[in-house]
Design goal:
Phosphatidylethanolamine-binding Protein; six-stranded mixed beta sheet; about 5% helix; 1 helix; Phosphatidylethanolamine-bd_CS; mainly beta; three-stranded antiparallel beta sheet; 9 strands
Length: about 150
């Protein structure tokens, strides 16, 4: 998200009734299925959506950072269902006793088609993926937190 965007928050709705609100804490079950996302999108533009956990396996020792939970590319406007899902959605399931985990939704405007290479979930290099695909800075984002005692 950037300072020059007024409406740069992804509206994220889980299970049709739970709104993600910049770091609110939710139970893991709240995000077990794909969320509904919406952002300030141009209908003639394509976007990439990435969901990551930067706290894997724990915030104190994030050795598997970033853990990839979802990637959708070539999204026309904010119509996720018409995008190409490169990595299928996986809801949060942090290991017990590892504290709060943050789950970020990041939206990038595409300037060219995105590489459709296979990606590993653990130790995903978000910055490298963004750089290689010339995505620039996120144009929108949001996150929630999950703790599994």
């Amino acid at each position: 998200m950037t300072e020059d965007h007024e409406n740069d928050t992804v509206v994220c709705i889980l299970k049709a009734i739970i709104f993600v609100s910049l770091g609110n804490e939710l139970p893991p079950s709240a995000a077990s299925s794909k969320p509904t996302l919406n952002w300030n999108a141009s209908p003639d533009q394509h976007y990439t959506v990435i969901m990551i956990d930067p706290d894997a396996p724990s915030r104190k020792k994030p050795m598997l950072r970033d853990y990839l939970h979802w990637v959708v590319v070539d999204v026309p406007g904010s119509h996720l269902k018409y995008g190409k899902e490169l990595v299928s959605y996986m809801g949060p399931h942090p290991p017990s006793g590892t504290g709060l985990h943050r789950y970020y939704f990041l939206v990038y405007k595409q300037s060219k088609p995105v590489s459709l290479e296979k990606m590993a979930r653990a130790s995903f290099d978000t910055h490298r993926f963004v750089d290689e695909n010339e995505l620039g800075k996120p144009i929108a984002g949001n996150y929630f937190q999950v703790n599994k005692p």
